[in-house]
């Protein structure tokens, strides 16, 4: 390892089109460097003007990932945490909107001494400061720039990277460009021209890539790699293929097989690198060739876009890998259950998972699914809204409160099993006030909170600890007024945080757990979340029992 204390930077850009896998590329390179003994940091730069993705539709932007300090961020931060097994903060993701907002506020306060505010140097300096902050205490910071080279919104970020190359020196910075190598079936050819044009555009902006990652659906012959190396002025050993893999967790291993670390070590003067990927490799093998299988019904409403549940589906993969089990997800649209019976969709499943979500659409179908799991003793996990609806279902069908509901769906309800508390202390320790009319952004309970688990509960058993820390993203809370009636009829509160209900279980059920927090946000391939691991383990025993 380098004896120098200065942070080195790897910038990952993308060309031709979006969704090429820049996030997986950045996370995979970070994983290899971490397993080679470096302190690795990651940063996502988002060129859009939104201050954060918190109010963006999942259909627009995929999942909103929540960091432990309560920042609503891009879903790529989820990939970083899952690959690097580390917890990130608001410093690991920022948007164009945040940069401009800060610069304008500084200008209003007179911090620029009356200067004319311009993209260079004011916007680029703000970007630079944030990049340096994210790299503090790290040997290497991997910076992923969202969007595609040539996008208008991304120009200030590219200009900043260009400036940093001159300020830091050659061996302190590396540019990696991810691009597409399309396969034209009728011609039977892989086409290199889009990559050449993308690199030309990058060079026109003052950035010369040191390495190219080529996304392709087919293996790339050596003569085409050589052609790209020559035409793009990149060393041949720095042209790396990224073919479609059976699991994203195999990507670091595929990169390692191509000796990707050699040109990285050479450019950044890191010395010889030998990552120990044995445990990782074992887990990947169990994802690709598991010896056991279980089927989970995933009941939700954003099923057309699986990306909106990315952390949760990945958490199920982590649990499966650690149990040598294929977790088959059966996607069940909750609106379809509303118009039919739950049984026809859930009868062949070993576990029922009701995920989080906002809004009233599909809620009655989710309640039917919960009732089916409760009455038929099928392992059940309810997350966030899933827990709240489990309480509503129990209140309606066990306590006989037919009008039981959430104030989210009926603000005037006389039976608010789920209600909106006026104030709470947020993850930063500040008091937050929220009402029905509060803006949607910034009034959620966000980030990591302490939760105390009940002795003898499934929750305590899963974590093996009386105090746990999990992340939240919700506005409404379980109403403690109903607690005594729920508990006297068999629904027990097994997790609490400062008087707030964090988890509920049902006594006479093999495994029924609802949690207010989002366990999927802290799940990693090498460190699966205990709640989800326990759920999959129970579903697996349900499978065995059925056979």
Characteristic terms for this protein:
single chain, 547 residues, alpha/beta, Rossmann fold, 2 domains, seven-stranded parallel β-sheet
Please describe what this structure looks like:
Residues 438-442 have low confidence and may be disordered. Helix content is 36%, strand content 23%. The strands form 6 sheets. A 9-stranded mixed beta sheet has the order 13-12-14-15-25-24-23-20-21, with helices on both faces. The longest helix is centred in the first third of the chain and has 17 residues, at 119-135. It contains 19 helices and 25 strands. It has 2 domains: 8-282, P-loop containing nucleotide triphosphate hydrolases (Rossmann fold, 3-Layer(aba) Sandwich), CATH 3.40.50; 291-546, 3-Layer(aba) Sandwich (Rossmann fold). The protein starts with 7 loop residues before the first strand and ends with a helix. The protein is α/β, with parallel strands linked by helices.
């Amino acid at each position: 390892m380098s004896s120098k204390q200065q942070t080195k930077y790897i910038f990952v850009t993308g060309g031709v089109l979006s969704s090429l896998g820049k996030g997986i590329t950045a996370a995979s390179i970070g994983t290899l460097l971490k397993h080679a003994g470096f302190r690795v940091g990651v940063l996502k730069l988002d060129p859009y003007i939104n201050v954060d993705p918190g109010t963006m539709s999942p259909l627009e932007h995929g999942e909103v990932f929540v960091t432990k300090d309560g920042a609503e961020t891009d879903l790529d931060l989820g990939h970083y945490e899952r690959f690097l097994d580390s917890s990130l903060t608001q410093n690991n993701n920022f948007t164009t909107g945040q940069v401009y907002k800060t610069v304008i506020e500084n200008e209003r306060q007179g911090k620029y001494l009356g200067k004319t505010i311009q993209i260079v140097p004011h916007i680029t300096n703000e970007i630079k400061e944030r990049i340096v902050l994210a790299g503090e205490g790290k040997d290497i910071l991997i910076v992923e720039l969202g969007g595609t080279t040539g996008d208008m919104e991304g120009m200030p970020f590219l200009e900043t990277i260009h400036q940093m190359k001159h300020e830091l020196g050659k061996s302190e910075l590396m540019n990696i460009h991810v691009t597409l190598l399309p396969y034209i079936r009728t011609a039977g050819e892989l086409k290199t021209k889009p990559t050449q044009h993308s690199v030309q555009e990058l060079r026109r902006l003052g950035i010369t890539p040191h390495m190219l990652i080529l996304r392709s659906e087919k293996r790339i012959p050596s003569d085409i790699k050589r052609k790209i190396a020559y035409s793009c002025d990149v060393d041949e050993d720095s042209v790396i293929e990224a073919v479609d893999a059976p699991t994203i967790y195999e990507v670091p291993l595929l990169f390692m097989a191509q000796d990707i670390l050699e040109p990285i070590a050479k450019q950044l003067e890191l010395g010889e690198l030998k990552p120990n990927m044995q445990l990782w490799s074992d887990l990947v093998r169990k994802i690709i060739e598991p010896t056991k299988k279980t089927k989970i019904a995933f009941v939700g409403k954003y099923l057309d876009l699986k990306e909106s549940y990315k952390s949760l589906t990945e958490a199920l993969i982590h649990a499966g890998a650690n149990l040598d089990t294929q977790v088959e997800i059966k996607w069940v649209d909750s609106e379809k259950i509303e118009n039919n019976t739950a049984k026809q969709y859930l009868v062949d499943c070993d576990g029922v998972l009701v995920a989080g979500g906002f809004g009233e659409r599909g809620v009655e179908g989710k309640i039917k699914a919960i009732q089916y799991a409760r009455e038929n003793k099928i392992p059940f996990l309810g997350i966030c809204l899933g827990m709240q609806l489990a309480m509503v279902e129990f209140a309606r069908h066990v306590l006989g409160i037919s009008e039981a509901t959430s104030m989210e769906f009926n603000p005037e309800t006389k039976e608010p099993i789920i209600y909106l508390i006026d104030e709470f202390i947020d993850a930063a320790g500040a008091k937050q006030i929220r009402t029905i009319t509060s803006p949607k952004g910034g009034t959620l309970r966000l980030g990591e909170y302490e939760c105390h688990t009940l002795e003898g509960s499934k929750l305590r058993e899963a974590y093996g600890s009386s105090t746990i820390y999990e992340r939240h993203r919700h506005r409404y809370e379980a109403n403690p007024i109903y607690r005594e009636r729920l508990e006297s009829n068999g629904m027990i509160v097994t997790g609490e945080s400062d008087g707030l209900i964090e988890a509920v279980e049902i006594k006479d059920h093999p495994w029924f757990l609802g949690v207010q927090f989002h366990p999927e946000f802290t799940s990693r391939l090498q460190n699966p979340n205990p709640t989800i691991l326990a759920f999959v383990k129970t579903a697996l025993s349900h499978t065995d029992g059925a056979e």
